[in-house]
Amino acid sequence: MKDRLPSCAHPRTPTYYIRTFGCQMNAHDSEVIAGLLEQLGYKRASSPETADLILLNTCCVRANAENRLYGHLGNLKPLKEERPDRVIGVCGCFVQQPGEQEKIREEFPHVDLVFGTHNLHRLPALLAQLEETKSRVFELWQEGERVEDLPVQRESPFRAWVNIIYGCNNFCSYCIVPYVRGREQSRRPEKILEEVRALAADGVKEVTLLGQNVNSYGRDLPAGERMDFADLLRLVGEVDGLSRIRFQTSHPKDLSSKLIRQMAAGENVCEHLHLPVQAGSNRVLAAMNRQYTREHYLKLIEELRAAVPGIAITTDIIVGFPGEEEEDFLQTLDLVEKAAFDSAFTFAYSPRKGTKAATLPNQVAPEIRMERLYRLIELVDTLAKKSNKRLEGEVVAVLVEGSSAKREDIYTGYTRTGKQVLFPHPDSDEDLTGREIPVLIEKGLSHTLHGKAVTGRE
Ligand code: SAH
Ligand code: SF4
Ligand code: F3S
After folding, report:
1. 23 with 56: CB under 8 angstroms?
2. 90 backbone dihedrals φ, ψ, rounded to 5°
3. Best substitution site from 26, 62, 175, 355 to test ligand 3's pocket, by max atoms within 8 Å of Cβ?
4. What is the CA(316)–ligand 2 centre distance, in A?
5. What pLDDT does 455 receive?
C-alpha cells in the first residue's frame, strides 16, 4: 500500500479536489482518500477549477441527494473539456447501486474513474491503471474486507473520526445503506485503540466513534476477542489525553443499560446521544422494521436522563412513510414532545429502489409528506429553542473550532452536548482554536447559542 506511483504522471505536483456528500461515514472516507492521494504526492487544491483530479464522494440515502449529484456531474463537463488530461472520478454510496455505473458510463463520458465503498484502498492502483491504459477505469466490489492502516488526511487537528464498525445488518425497510455499504464488519479492538492512541498523541482532543449502528459493535469479532460497544467505550475512555468522546449512530433496539451506565461512568464521554427514533407510531415502526416500540424508546430516554444529568438527546425522524395516516403522524408529534429532543434531523420519506418500502402500497402523496414535515419542523424548532433557552446564564465548556465563516471576529465551537456556540473574540491576541474555553451563555436560539468567553480576568 505504501508504494508510490511513478511520478512521471505529472511534470509538476498534481492536485486534487474532493467534494463529499452524505453522512460522516462518507466524510471520513474522504479523509482516507485524501490520505492516499497525499501519499502519492498529490496536494489539495482550493477549487475544482485548479485541480488535476476531481472526485465526487456520493450519497444516495434520499432522492434529492441523487438529483443534486447529477447536477454536479453535469457541471464538471466544461472542466473536462477545458483540460482533457484532468481526471474526473465518482465514488461512494451512489455508484454501489445497481445500474448506476452503466448510467454514468453512457451519459457522462467525461467521467474517467469510478470506484465504490468497498475498494477505496484500490485508488492508487486504479490511478496507475488509468495513467497506463489511458482509458476509463470502473471498478466496483459488491463486498470486501476493509483494509487497515490506510493513511488519513484529517480535516481538523483536534477532532477526529474513528470507524469502529462498517456496514449495517438492520435493513430498515426504507433504507438503502445496507445495500451500498454491505454487512456489519467490526474493526479489531486493538486496531481501534492503536488509532485512538496515535490521535491523542498527535494532540487530538475529541474523538467520534463511527458506525451505522455502533451498538452492534463486536458481535462478529472472533470468539477470543469478543467485546461489546460498552466495553470498547470504556477502553477508548482510558486512553490518555482525550477530553471528549462521542459516538454515532445508536440504534434504540440495541442500546443497552450497560452502555448507559458506561456513558455515565466515563468522564470524557460527552453528554449527548443521537438516537434516531424515525417514527412515533408502533404500526409505522413495525412497518419500518425498526424492532422497538414507542414505549421502549421513551423508557430509554427516561433511563438516559436519569443516568446522565444534562444529557442532550437528538434524533432523526421520517414523515410520510408508506401507509402513515394522520393518526400515526400525531403519534410522532406526541413522542417528539414527550422525548423533548434538543434537536432533530427531519426528513420526508423518499422511496429508494431496491428497498422493501418502495414497493409498499399506500405511498403517501408528496404534498402530504411536505405538509407533515413542516408541522414537525415547527415543533422541533420550538423544543430546540426551549432547551437552548434553559442554558441562558450558564457557563459551558466550548471546544473552539475557529473563527466563524461569516465573521472573522466571532469564534464558533461546540459544547459537550453538541450544541453550537458563537462568541466574540475576547480582548487578547491569543488564538483559542482547538482549546476548551468556558463561555457564559447569553442567548439560546433554536440552532445556536450566543455568549461571551469567561476569561477569569473580569
Ligand atoms: N445508521 C443511521 C443513519 C442512517 S441514514 C441510523 O440508523 O440512524 C440517516 C437518516 O436518514 C436515517 O436516520 C433516516 O432518518 C434518514 N433516511 C434513511 N433513508 C431514508 C429514506 N428513504 N427517506 C427519508 N429519510 C431516510
Ligand atoms: Fe439504515 Fe436502519 Fe441501518 Fe440505519 S440502522 S443505516 S436507518 S438500515
Ligand atoms: Fe449517504 Fe452513504 Fe452515508 S448513502 S447517508 S453517504 S452511508
Report:
1. no
2. -130, 130
3. 26
4. 11
5. 78
Domain ranges, ordered by start, for the chain: 15-139, 159-389, 395-453
What is the predicted pLDDT for the residue at 7?
45
* CB 214, CB 171: distance < 8 Å: no
Rounded Cα distance between 23 and 166, Å, is 13
Its CATH class, for the domain covering 15-139, is alpha beta
Q: How many residues does the chain have?
A: 458
pLDDT digits (tens, 9 = 90+) for 229-255: 999 999 999 999 999 999 999 999 999
Pair 40, 124: CB distance under 8 Å? yes
Superfamily of domain 159-389: tm_1862 like domain (3.80.30.20)
Q: What residues contact 82, with CB distance under 8 A and at least 6 apart? A: none
The pLDDT tens digits of the residues spanning 319-333 come to 999 999 999 999 999
What lies within 8 Å, CB to CB, of 310 at 6+ separation is 271, 417
Rounded CA-CA distance 421/399 in Å is 9
In single-letter form, the type of residue at position 333 comes to L
Nearest CA to ligand 1 atom 7: 212
Please state, in angstroms and rounded to a whole number, the distance separating the CA atoms of residues 122 and 115.
8
Distance in Å, CA 61 to ligand 1 centroid = 7
- Look up residue 195 and give its three cell numbers: 488509532
What is the side-by-side strand order in the sheet with 87-92?
43-44, 15-20, 53-58, 87-92, 113-115, 137-139
* 395-453 to CATH, choices 2.40.50, 2.30.29, 2.60.40, 2.10.260: 2.40.50
| CB-based contact 86:16 (threshold 8 Å) | no
Task: Pick the closest to residue 349 from 339, 332, 337, 275 (CA basis).
Answer: 332
* pLDDT tier for residue 66 given thresholds of 50, 70 and 90: confident
Which residue in this structure is represented by grid cell 474517467? 112
Measured in angstroms, how far is the CA atom of residue 170 from the centroid of ligand 2?
6
The atom number, within ligand 3, closest to the CA of 23 reads 3
Dihedral sign for Cα atoms in the order 224, 228, 229, 233: negative
| Shortest-distance Cα residue to atom 1 of ligand 2 | 175
pLDDT of residue 456: 64
Q: Is 265 exposed, middle or buried (0-12, 13-18, 19+ CB in 10 A)?
A: middle
Q: Which ligand lies nearest the alpha carbon of 57?
A: 3
Residue 60 has pLDDT above 50, yes or no: yes
Q: Would the pTM of this model clear 0.90, i.e. be above it?
A: yes
Quote the cell numbers at residue 224. Answer: 477470543
